[in-house]
Amino acid sequence: MEQYSQRARSLQQRLGRVNHQPVDVESWTNKRITVNYRVPLEQLEELLPGAIAPEEIRDTGMGMLSMCACDFSVTKFGPIPLPEVHTNEMLCRISVTIPKNGERRRAYYTLRSDTSSRLLGLCGGYFSHFRKATSSFARVDDGKTYELRCRAADPLCNAELTASLDAVSDDPPETTAFADVEEATDFVLELDGSCGYNFQKGKLSFQDIDYPDWDVSFCHEFDLDSALLDYLVEAFDLDATFDCALYMADVDQTWKRAWMYDPQQSGAGVPERNPRQTPADD
After folding, report:
1. Buried-most residue among 29, 30, 55, 106 (CB within 10 A)?
2. Domains, the chain, ranges and CATH?
């Protein structure tokens, strides 16, 4: 157990920093495709700090590991409107619950986020919990194909997604554990917010997210190549089973400011999990 725990900490220290986000951030998303894999809960636990628990899909004993490919524009930092700052992004995440203000909150925990924007990579790399880094991207968005290719300084974070926009519908694929797109949307996307964990300080960060009334569909034809996902499956012996890919477009969101806090003092308790030791560095 501890061998996996140490490996997970070392990996996340390699992937980036976790810190406060002192201001709200408003954005408009052009397109987003989230590719989802079911993984046994006990395997996902080995990737997570002890204060964070993978969320179970109903009573299946399975949680969710996802890769998100998107492009969006940041329109405001705090109260200050910005000239449109566009970014292409690749993000690896786990669906989790965390303690916050006396209750359990549903969130996604980010292992890594790559951005094409130097501004967002710089600011987000120091002032967010997304373990963000600036990387080189190429994008195709011609109305029929959506393709995003990420080439990172760390080759472990290279990724490429190609999807057919003609293959988007509300019909659930045979691979999914969800009854329909509404149930899939609720579990994967309709979360309270996002979160991160600073290993050095032993502190959590939770960020509320304001969502719109969005229109989500399944994407039935796509190809995803992710070095990080491949590494997680091999290094942590994950039994990852493809579930579904979710597509959305034209989405406004506000990412609220977030401050790190001690999960032991949150009042909601920490889930019963395998013991973790606090590492020395982040």
Report:
1. 55
2. 2-262 (2.40.400.10)
